[in-house]
Amino acid sequence: MWLETLLVVIVVVNAASAIVTVFRQPRDIAATWAWLLVLMLIPVLGFVLYWLFGRKLSTNKLNALATQQRLGIDQMVAAQQEAVELSQDQGANSPFAGAPELVRTLLKADGALITTMNDVQLIFDRTEFSRRLFADLEAAQHHIHIEAYTIAPDAHGQALVQLLVKKVEAGVRVRVIYDTFGSHRLNRNFWRPLIAAGGMVEPFIATKLGRANLRINFRNHRKITVIDGRVGYMGGFDIGSSSRKYLITQDTQLRISGQAVASLQARFFMDWNTTARIKKVHFQRAYFPESHDTGRTTMQIVSGGPEQDLEAIKLGDLRLLALAKRRIWVQSPFFVPDDSLLDGLILAAQSGMDVRLMVPKQTNQPLMAKATAFYLNRLAKHGVKVYRYDAGFLHRKVIIVDSQYLMTGSPNLDVRSFKLNFEIAAFIYDQALAERAERQFKLDLQQATAYTYAEVKSQTRWHQMGTELARLFAPIL
User: 419 an active-site residue?
Assistant: First the structure.
């Protein structure tokens, strides 16, 4: 009798604790139910999993991220915002007249400023990216700002530190933000030469536990480099190679010069001032030099993160899909979308458009790959042309619409990137760049295999159950 009573007490206390724990912070209904089931069905261990994956950032940290623009950066932002409003009155003469709804969506969701006359170069190969990046770092005269998810302690990472030390000694100001989860292979000695030389290095939103921080969510997945306020890099490549099974040699990176570099600089300033305990930075003209018209590209740079009321990057993706009249081509390492994005692609395919999705056959995250397979099955069933890249871990993250519009950056097309990670993406209004990305897509197709609905139907029930089970964890992956 006493044992039954004890079990009832344990169940009731566990259920009450689960409800209090999950409802302490607002989250969407899918994640709420997922965590309730985990906590109630897996006593004790469920709370360990929640400690690792489910806790949100403190309100103070989120508020700091949302309000850093008040630290002087707003002086530049306000001027550019006014210029954008004036240019929207130009009608057909506006450089973004073909996509005003998308432009306004991104302006309202994230304050993403429209910039014109940028020179933007697409880089698809890791070797080429490293060569270009190091050449620009070598040429720096005033400052180098780097925000990275993964910096590996391999030959590339060591070469980066050595070069940054050299630039500090030459009088260049160097600031580095890195994510402790993505850069978990770094030890305490890695940054010591740079700090000793006078460089500034900060882990992103560090806790009192330092590198031993157990919170796995809320990773800073942004990959930004700004050099002298004139050259900027953003995209998907990390610095150095992963120690995991499949190396990432193919991704999409942007090298930018022109007005858009100021948007990257402002993003870095906001993130630096949120995470740095001392030596915060403020608006100075030297960090935002006068930009020359160097190219023809119009673009918006959009940030995403858990501090936002609206999922700005996802809203941009949905609006981008809605612009399509003929085709939508997508590449992503993982595809674990919410219903709105999934339905958007299926709706486009059902209306007769050429909708293609390419994902890698090989990845370093088996559970995410299993969850991706569930959604690939849905897409293949409803007319989307699905391809699996066979020649390694394809890491590109792009959406190309009608050979006119291009989205690329750090976010995967998954729930984590839209809700949990700190991400950055570029929405580009340039036919030449969209066509260049299409040509690369076609080259990748030569090393990809079509994934048809006939293949889906041939799968065993056990295989399909595995994908369905992995999909249940999608809201908290």
Answer: no
